[in-house]
């Protein structure tokens, strides 16, 4: 039997509508069973709380780029992927001195890790925080300073945030089409269940990071920016992306190569993470005390 073009298009539309309806039904089922899923650890609430008594908090540090993806490249040929790995290792060393914090890296060497896999690694290790470390690249060499970004699903907070998120989200392009995102309609529905708390906590984490970066390095933006960074799209883990400096700025490219700056920026990131946990614990105790009375 031969179908004409209009008939084929009509049939395709019906099939797509049925698929959407099925997925919507599955999403409604998931929402109806949210409390059960949370109790089983299948759906967390976006809060950086301890899952087991006495279990250390887990922080996933993500050195951006790697392998066939060098990231931004400075005028002297310095590649972002190498600089951020060194900074990430220093953050891990700082946090290793805290008995209540366990730190993992998404990559420990010069290798390519797809964006979605970086998010998966944080989830597999039951991370409480995700911090992605980068070094800005921009078309204007005068752009300078550090920035911290959280996720936004309502558009970027600035033109620079939009530019950087588009650039970072293109990281998988170097590996070909197999890493392109697939249809994630159901995933998005489930993500919407918890994203409000997660983004709120991500913004709080960003504020603590900026408070510690400000004394050691100039800021490109004084507040936590927001954009649709793919690597920050964990439904339940507070996540931020730290742009430590502009590697495309002549002065900052040289700065990024120095051990002194790497030490200072890594310590600032580490202190921001520790402050965030202290802040959250204090507010959680205050809430519990007030609600119990």
From TrEMBL:
Any Pfam family the entry gives: Amidase_3
Annotated MurNAc-LAA domain residues: 119-274
Signal peptide: 1-38
A GO CC term attached to the entry: outer membrane-bounded periplasmic space
Locations listed in the record: Periplasm
Broad class of where this protein is predominantly found: periplasm
GO biological process: cell wall organization; peptidoglycan catabolic process
Enzyme category, top tier: hydrolase
Matches recorded under Gene3D superfamilies: Zn-dependent exopeptidases
Domain of life: Bacteria
Keywords: Cell wall biogenesis/degradation, Hydrolase, Periplasm, Signal
Catalyzed reactions: Hydrolyzes the link between N-acetylmuramoyl residues and L-amino acid residues in certain cell-wall glycopeptides
E.C. number(s) listed in UniProt: 3.5.1.28
Family annotation (CDD domains): MurNAc-LAA
GO molecular function: N-acetylmuramoyl-L-alanine amidase activity
NCBIfam families per the UniProt record, alphabetical: PRK10319.1 (NF007652)
Family stated for the protein in its record: Belongs to the N-acetylmuramoyl-L-alanine amidase 3 family.
Protein name: N-acetylmuramoyl-L-alanine amidase AmiA
Organism: Sodalis ligni
């Amino acid at each position: 039997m031969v179908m004409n073009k209009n008939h084929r298009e009509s049939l395709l539309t019906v099939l797509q509508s049925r698929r959407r309806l099925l997925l919507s039904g599955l999403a409604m089922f998931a929402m109806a069973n949210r409390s059960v899923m949370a109790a089983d650890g299948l759906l967390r609430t976006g809060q950086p709380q301890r899952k087991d008594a006495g279990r250390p908090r887990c922080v996933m540090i993500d050195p951006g780029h790697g392998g066939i993806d060098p990231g931004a490249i400075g005028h002297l040929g310095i590649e972002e992927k190498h600089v951020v790995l060194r900074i990430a290792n220093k953050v891990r060393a700082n946090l290793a001195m805290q008995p209540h914090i366990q730190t993992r890296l998404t990559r420990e060497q010069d290798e390519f890790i797809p964006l979605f896999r970086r998010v998966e690694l944080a989830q597999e290790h039951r991370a409480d925080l995700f911090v992605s470390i980068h070094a800005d690249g921009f078309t204007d060499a005068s752009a300078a300073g550090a920035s911290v970004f959280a996720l936004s699903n309502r558009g970027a907070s600035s033109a620079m945030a939009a530019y950087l998120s588009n650039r970072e989200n293109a990281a998988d392009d170097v590996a070909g089409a197999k890493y392109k995102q697939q249809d994630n309609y159901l995933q998005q529905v489930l993500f919407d269940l918890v994203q409000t708390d997660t983004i709120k906590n991500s913004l709080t984490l960003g504020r603590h990071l900026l408070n510690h970066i400000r004394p050691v390095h100039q800021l490109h933006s004084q507040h936590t920016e927001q954009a649709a960074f793919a690597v920050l799209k964990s439904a339940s883990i507070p996540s931020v992306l730290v742009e430590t400096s502009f590697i495309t700025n002549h002065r900052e490219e040289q700065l990024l190569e120095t051990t002194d700056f790497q030490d200072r920026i890594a310590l600032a990131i580490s202190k921001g993470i520790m402050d965030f946990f202290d802040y959250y614990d204090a507010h959680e105790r205050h809430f519990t005390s007030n609600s119990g009375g």
